[in-house]
């Protein structure tokens, strides 16, 4: 073989190896945590990052790098592709309902790249594993509490108008098909008279816009608001404190953010799931190509009833009725399946 042929062969081999993800020199797996948004202001992303980092630190089997894609959704596919193309990461882990399709569209170009996506659903793609939460149960619990509160004038911040609202950052399939219908389903189960208003801020970070919408909802008679608008949620809390209405919090526990005004917290245990899935990955136990759904019975959807502010913020009657419904879901006596 002449020198030029040898050089060419060397370059080809070097390229192939550099574009395959390899274990780092310390033998640890390299994990990129792809944040489709910003960590600050979005508990779902903070919990994802914390769970992965905790698993890496505890086992010393992995190194996590947090990669924030920012709020411009049009830039996400290019940023995700760049992460995969870098060949630096054994695993890209993320959490967002729009991510499974995005990973699918680039996965054939990077067959050696593994993806784990939480809070999303996709089955049958070789290098992608997904875990979806049963958010029908999560939004049902938020709605059940909102329905009870809106029915009663005895509650501290309710005028008993039978009127609740959900403020979302944007419309997306999970919002329109699971979260909003689940919230209404729960509210109507608790209070058949209830009416629900749906508003969209158009941003995952605009607290001013969210506050403005919340205040106008309050003026129109709404007694309870569920905000699902990322950093905008802070604006809903400010409006609640200014006007005096109840907020039902979503994803993590929010009581301490506005004591007395946050009446309940319907939890998605993303920190726990991210931790457990990362441990499984580091131990080689993830079945790629599969998807599963976890809910209240499995302990990944829940409600924070341990914070004393929950019991203190609502009437005894509401507390008792709500706990009965929560325990039915926890025990598996009652389930609300999600369909994909
Ligand atoms: N939730 C957040 O808390 N912050 C975000 O920046 C955010 N961005 C999202 C972008 C898209 C395209 C979609 C579909 C959802 C987003 N979510 C965000 C919502 C999140 O995935 C989840 O539905 C809600 O947190 C309710 O659990």
UniProtKB/TrEMBL annotation:
Pfam families: Bmp
Membrane topology label: Lipid-anchor
Superkingdom field: Bacteria
Domain ABC transporter substrate-binding protein PnrA-like residues, every copy: 28-319
Record's subcellular location: Cell membrane
Coiled-coil segments: none
Record keywords: Cell membrane, Lipoprotein, Membrane, Palmitate, Signal, Transport
Signal sequence range: 1-21
Gene Ontology CC terms: plasma membrane
Keyword Hydrolase: no
Family: Belongs to the BMP lipoprotein family.
Protein name: BMP family ABC transporter substrate-binding protein
